[in-house]
Amino acid sequence: MSARYHVTDVFAEAPYTGNQLATFLSAAEIDGAEMQRIARAFNFAESTFVTGGSLADGFDVRIFTPAEELPFAGHPALGTAHLLREVMHPQASAITLNLGVGPIVVCFVPDDSGGVVAWMEQNPCSYGDELDRSAAARALGLEPGDVDASMPVQEVSTGLATVVVPLTSLAALRRIEPDNSAIREFLSAAAEAKNVLVVCREPYEAHQQVAARMFAPELGVTEDPATGSANGAFAGYILRHSYLGEGPVRAAIGQGYEIGRPSTLWLEAGAEGGAMRIRVGGRVATVAVGDWLPLMD
Predict the structure, then answer these.
(1) What's the pLDDT at 273?
(2) Which residues are known catalytic residues?
(3) Model-level pTM?
(4) What is the residue-wise DSSP string for the chain?
(5) What is the pLDDT of residues 13-26, one digit of tens each?
């Protein structure tokens, strides 16, 4: 038995940028163990499998890294919703995905360039413990002074926890050479997080406000080109700590530059009706379609 798959670039502003995603839109016949083997074979940060559902009730989606299944991840949500719209429901203005954390709605908004930006609504941010700055610096191969003393190193989550580490400069961010063992040891102090998002207020490009890098060795991802879940949680961090100033958040985050997959993620966060609202957006492009042949009858 074979299965059709699509590859998308998510948070991509140009060809061969953004975060790659493999998606199987008709995966009801594929069991979880085979999904994990497929995800390991693709070796993208994540692969997704649509196992059922409808436009009215939402589509059931499972997300796998090369190492394990996740209840939520950002770029897989955007890429999968983009494909469901492109292939099955081209007139839809929104697609609901039924994920492990519950329903996630992805909306499609035309932009000034004639393209479309996909926006996902994430859950409100929860705030965990602050972690030691010196330990964070050691894990990243940096000096303690490279970690911004005016902001906390903190675990935050909108469904998939991350530890935010703020740095003082882009030069420090670029000096990081990921040491998987050191990062694993640092993250052992976190309650839930299996990844670390390292940020600074010195952007890669003029249209951005923040530069970021994300490391998740426990998930089989040494460095991720663009991380919607971690950046959604970071939007909550920005809001809580006024990282970019007082008031609602509207920011562009650059990520993936050091690994040759430059990406731009758009963040919006604020309080509406007494509740926190977080949205993460980006452009998505379909780049390949094929048939996966190794499936056994």
Answers:
(1) 80
(2) 46
(3) 0.92
(4) --EEEEEEEES-SSTT-SEEEEEES--TTS-HHHHHHHHHHH-SSEEEEEEEEETTTEEEEEEE-SS-EES--HHHHHHHHHHIIIII-TT-SEEEEEETTEEEEEEEEE-TTS-EEEEEEEPPPEEEEE--HHHHHHHTT--GGGB-TTS--EEEESSS-EEEEEBS-HHHHHH----HHHHHHHHTTSSS---EEEEESS-SSTT-SEEEEEEEGGGTEEEES--HHHHHHHHHHHHHHTBTBSS-EEEEEEE-GGGT--EEEEEEEEEETTEEEEEEEE-EEEEEEEEE-----
(5) 999 999 999 999 99
Right CATH for 3-110+284-292 from 3.10.310.10, 3.30.565.10, 3.30.530.20, 3.30.390.10: 3.10.310.10
pLDDT tens for each residue of 80-108: 999 999 999 999 999 999 999 999 999 99
